[in-house]
Amino acid sequence: MAGRYPQAWLDELRNRADIVQVVSAYVPLKKNGSRYWGLCPFHGEKTASFSVNPSMQLFYCFGCKAGGSVIQFIMDIERLEYHEAVKFLADQVHLQLPQLEYDPNWEKKRSQKERLLAANREAARYYHQTLFTEAGRPALDYLKGRGLSDSVIRRFGLGAAPDQWDALTQHLKGQGYTEEELSLAGLTIIREAEPATEDSPARPRRVFDMFRGRAIFPIIDVSGNVLAFGGRILGQGQPKYLNTSDTPVFNKREGVYAANLLHKERQLERVILVEGYMDVVSLTQFGVRGVCATLGTALTVEQARLLKRFAPKVFLAYDGDSAGQHAILRGLDILQAAGVPARVLDFPDGLDPDEFIRRDGPEGFAKLPDISPETYRMRRLREQYDMTSQEDRMEYARACARVLKGLDPVAIETHLAELSVQTGFSREVLLQQIGQSQPLQTVQQQPPRRPRPAPAPAAAAETVRAQELIISLIAAKQLPVDAAEEKDFDDPLLKSIYAALSEGAQVADIVERQATADDRARVSQVLTQELPQSVDESLLMARQCLKALRRQRMEKELQQIMARLNTAPREEQGRLMAEAAQLTASLNKLKNSR
């Protein structure tokens, strides 16, 4: 993150926001021994594998490997960014947010942001109330004509901008907001006065509403803040959809429509990304879960990363016209670059999602096949070539080979038979074009690699377990930190944890410092593992582990010295022999110690 809260303030926040109480608001917990246990909220399970360690102020799931501090729990359960989760917890425990250490104007910026968000919230309330008045009747008729119920209209907070020049502006000015604030929020447009010229008369200063005569779709973030608005024209006119431009509280590249509803969904298997606001509202009304839309722009990398927080996969469900199909290709590239698995819902007859679900219902929508990215790309490629032409078949085969290159052998195999029939080229020729250098059977016999939080492969499993136990005992204050040394740890992650503990860092803070989810999971597991209740037993285990670690380290160093002796210059051999003798003496002393 760009700036960090003062460490003392973060420590106080974690102490006040007791992790057991915070987690209990989401997960029923039962105490067993020194921990609390419950069903994991992040994956489906019938046997409790989710644990909370109150002394460490950490949580860890032995099933899905989720783990971290109370801040990480709120980030995961509420799907918030770090700063958002910190503010969420600070509000709960009535702890005032401090000034970020890097920003001297933080207080001023916070005040401005809060004013703009408050103005947007009041504007959303005004638009929604107007929808059910005579001034909002055209918008209400439009929404009802699209088949929307009162309940879904209220769920999305839909509204109406009256067909008047400055109705909203005058209302918000009456609430104490200035024209400059409303302009900054994107609610009001200010045209400054212009003097007369030879070609045009003088023009007075004009102030008018951004949205007029439109159905309004509020854009709300995961925290419930109204950030911006989209407006759909009623009747003829351009643009069909008008969206708030970027403001100090809104960046259309970073959010998605219906994020506030999306983050409340639990255990989503997929997010369905559509193009339009009405598609989101309509699919939701028909009971489809996890639907959202981009904000008047093509899918961005920032939005792809956001969607990754809600579900493991993204299904692109864009319109069936040519523009929608082109947007799918670009969206697949963006999702692939962001490391998000994607599929495509291909709507027949050129329909958009709203039109399709009205025609075929939720049952038809549920039966839509989801297509892999490579299948979709190959379908679109085939439309560009004349398959009756030998030259075009060759180019099509080359283009498909580029699509398939880099896929695993099983995925390639699923496409080879069809591609061979389409182009007339044999499976072997296509494999060569793809760049498959060895027979498929040989590759398939290799066992799959299962990614997991793991130590460096150079460290033996027993050595790593001993290092982990030492870290756990120090973190639990059952072993003094100076009982070990940094050179006792050859696993890089464990070495960094020991260094942090030596500096007096809190356990929860160490977990939060980890850059990846895998590292957070491993550190959480190490720091929360069960330890002996007896202090004497813990000390005995620690002495045994340290003795084994130091013996292995000395033996390794001695082997390295002896290997260097054979090739070292004569003048260096004497020094190496002295080091070897000293190591041998220390090693013998360690072996004979009790």
Written description of the protein model:
The chain has 594 residues and is an alpha+beta fold. The protein has five domains: 7-92, Zinc finger, CHC2-typedomain (DNA Primase, Chain A); 106-190 and 206-243, DNA primase DNAg catalytic core, N-terminal domain; 265-371, Dna Topoisomerase Vi A Subunit, Chain: A, domain 2, CATH 3.40.1360; 389-440, no CATH class; 461-592, DNAb Helicase, Chain A (Orthogonal Bundle). Helices cover 49% and strands 10% of the residues. The protein contains 25 helices and 16 strands. The strands form four sheets. The chain has a five-stranded antiparallel β-sheet, with helices on both faces. α11 (277-285) runs parallel beside α14 (353-366), α20 packs across α24 (535-565) and α24 packs antiparallel against α25 (570-592). The protein is globular.
Report the β-strand fraction as a percent range: 5-15%
* Second-tier CATH architecture of the largest domain: Orthogonal Bundle
Radius of gyration: 31 Å
- The average pLDDT is 86
Q: How many DSSP-defined strands? A: 16
Give the count of structural domains. 5
CATH H-level superfamily title of the largest domain: DNAb Helicase, Chain A
Could you name the key traits of this structure?
single chain, 594 residues, alpha+beta, DNA Primase, Chain A, DNA primase DNAg catalytic core, N-terminal domain, Dna Topoisomerase Vi A Subunit, Chain: A, domain 2, 5 domains, 5-stranded antiparallel β-sheet, 5-stranded mixed β-sheet, 10% strand, globular
